[in-house]
């Protein structure tokens, strides 16, 4: 999953990124200073690995990207291009008074900041859609693309991001090539002062996030950066003292999953135990396609069992005998934590 961290200068997005990357960690396989790849903790994967002793254990991973804000405009061409490559966008808002950047003249107002960034994303999409509509008008085209673009423009004019316009799956497919910025699932990080960690400061931001239907996380990026430098044992003790239960890593990963409405299913065997992420509500055939396109094309049936049922049984043979291992068809809705084996023929 590709997650972009974005916000105004002085909001603390780079400090948050450093907290995620940790001290001295490589930026993952891409070896870039602005990317860090985090494995998603999943004890189900670890427990299953203990049963199968596989050659390889693979967790779902999330790649966090530190996206530079444009200068002087927030959304430069380069910045917009970087955002278009993301699957989720994290908007970091300022809720603290310190730091190198002065507090805005009007004071801290994360709601206003959130609305301003959202408007900038919508405006960027509006200009792209309007330009394409003008081109279609010159060509005298009134096809499906023209119809959907008119619908999106109507939404943009009412300050509605594309994800909130209510396009059908087919309508989204028609305009998917534009990769509109406001189509992206969003979650918000409110970066607060150390003194108010654990408190619900700026309660109006909670209401704004609820109205926008986006997850909200409150944290102090500076403190999280300090925590990331400690050993695991020291981190646990430090977080207890600060009154927080989970690190920024855990909360950011969970936020990304919630924004995308992702669940995890598992595949097991002596070669590999692996977790895969799919959208909540995905069918068995869609999940099969996540593993390999051949499995989707030649899908016959899926053998399915919950991880907990399998661990109680201890083996697939016993699970089959006890009727816990089920055969499901293409339209079966995969559930979080299920082990799936695909029967296929290509």
Name some characteristics of this structure.
6-stranded mixed β-sheet, 3-stranded mixed β-sheet, 346 residues, flat, 21% strand, alpha/beta, 12 strands
Question: Can you describe this structure?
Answer:
The chain has helices spanning 13-21, 43-52, 77-84, 110-138, 144-157, 169-174, 203-212, 221-228, 232-242, 248-260, 284-291, 293-297, 307-313, 316-321, and strands spanning 2-7, 35-39, 56-58, 61-66, 88-95, 186-192, 216-219, 262-267, 272-279, 299-306, 326-328, 338-344. The chain is an alpha/beta fold. Helix 7 (203-212) links the parallel strand 6 (186-192) and strand 7.
Number of helices in the DSSP assignment: 14
Average pLDDT number: 88
- Catalogue the unreliable spans: 25-31
What does the radius of gyration come to?
23 Å
Beta strand %: 15-25%
Global geometry = flat
Give the SSE string: EHEHEEHEHHHEHEHHHEEHHEHHEE
Q: How many strands in all?
A: 12
Report on the biggest sheet: 6 strands, mixed
| Helix-residue proportion | 40-55%
Kindly name the structural category: alpha/beta
Strand order of the largest sheet: 2-4-1-5-6-7
Q: Distance between termini?
A: 28 Å
Question: Which secondary structure elements does this structure contain, and how are they paired or packed?
Answer:
Layout (H helix, E strand, L loop, with lengths): L1 E6 L5 H9 L13 E5 L3 H10 L3 E3 L2 E6 L10 H8 L3 E8 L14 H29 L5 H14 L11 H6 L11 E7 L10 H10 L3 E4 L1 H8 L3 H11 L5 H13 L1 E6 L4 E8 L4 H8 L1 H5 L1 E8 H7 L2 H6 L4 E3 L9 E7 L2
Parallel strand pairs: 1-4, 1-5, 3-9, 5-6, 6-7
Antiparallel strand pairs: 2-4, 8-9, 10-11, 10-12
Helix pairs in contact: 1-8, 4-5
